[in-house]
Amino acid sequence: MNADPRVALDVDGLDVDIHTPHAVLRAVDSVSFQAVRGRTVALLGESGCGKSMTATAIAGVLDPVAEVAGGSIRLSDGAGRVTDLVSASAKERRELAGKDLGIVFQDALTALNPVYPVGTQLAEPFRIHRGLSKRAARREAIELMRRVGIPEPETRVDAYPHQFSGGMRQRLLIAIAVALSPSVLLADEPTTALDVTVQAQIMSLLRDLREERDMAVVLITHDLALVFEQADRVVVMYAGNVVEEGPVDDVFGSPGHPYTRGLLDSVPVSAERGASLSSIGGAPPELSAIPSGCVYQDRCPLVRSLCREQRPTAREVSPGHRSACHFPDEVSSEEANRSVEVTR
């Protein structure tokens, strides 16, 4: 574990394999990053890039066909106790869930149990982990509802999930996740399917709770604007690999990888009617067809023979900013900014 006591989560060389009837596929390959108390680190990338698989590995809720094949996931409770979640037993994980590691899922309707009142679900962490009585846990649940902005919590504590709007259900999920003031909060696409105004409210709530409770937040998203507004650091993932990582201002202001550049260029800043929008040509590779060289070679405008022969290792392009590209200095060139059609 990093000696810095502010590091609440240290993911080092994480590998996740998926077992299929025909082969074992590497879905997450040597992923490393840290989450610091009071800060937000974002895992960014297209669908299928491995960011949610990384999060479920940290949370210990991988599908039965998937397993952690290597690396470590060290969680610190801030009092000097460090637990490697990879080697932790099921009992140890249950003790850590909610108390040291909170999770906000992206689908609030299915994440909440439809047959129990929300107050019962909010009170459960207090009864399990703190041994509170039913009455005391109910008081804590009402106070949590009030803290996350649920109106009239004293009367709505006995309501069921379907009686709340999507934004209110997401607030309830956040309340459950932060009930016991965990060291780390995993937020997997926390604003999916919410309108823009509600999205802003939810992210503002997460930011306030992060600062108030000194939590480290791991934000999983494909929304570049959300990362720019909310995160301190960003980890850009592609085909299960980290291709770039660093402070958000540095990575977005001067990207060191063609994939990051392509993502940024695909965001329309200003466009005229009828004008074509920039996009990244091609599609991410299937897990069964990850190339042996650079994972981005089939879509990259800078690709050369070296890229097809050798996997680039991450190297520092500026203080705290690393890129896994053989030619990071050329990423800002005119060639890298062109939209390229790729034939596979």
What is the fold's blueprint, element by element?
Elements: E1 7-19, E2 24-36, E3 40-44, H1 51-59, E4 66-76, E5 82-84, H2 90-96, E6 101-104, H3 108-111, H4 118-129, H5 134-147, H6 153-156, H7 166-178, E7 184-188, H8 196-213, E8 216-221, H9 224-230, E9 233-238, E10 241-247, H10 248-253, H11 258-265, H12 305-309, E11 315-318, E12 321-323, H13 334-337
Parallel strand pairs: 3-8, 3-9, 6-7, 7-8
Antiparallel strand pairs: 1-2, 1-4, 4-5, 9-10, 10-12, 11-12
Helix pairs in contact: 4-5, 7-8
Description:
- The protein is α/β, with parallel strands linked by helices and 344 residues long.
- The protein folds into 2 domains: 7-236, P-loop containing nucleotide triphosphate hydrolases (Rossmann fold), CATH 3.40.50.300; 255-337, no CATH class.
- 32% of the residues lie in helices and 23% in strands.
- The chain contains 13 helices and 12 strands.
- Strands 6-7-8-3-9-10-12-11 form an 8-stranded mixed beta sheet, with helices on both faces. A 4-stranded antiparallel beta sheet has the order 2-1-4-5, with helices on one face.
- The radius of gyration is 21 Å and the shape is globular.
- The protein starts with 6 loop residues before the first strand and ends in a 7-residue tail after the last helix.
- Residues 334-344 have low confidence and may be disordered.
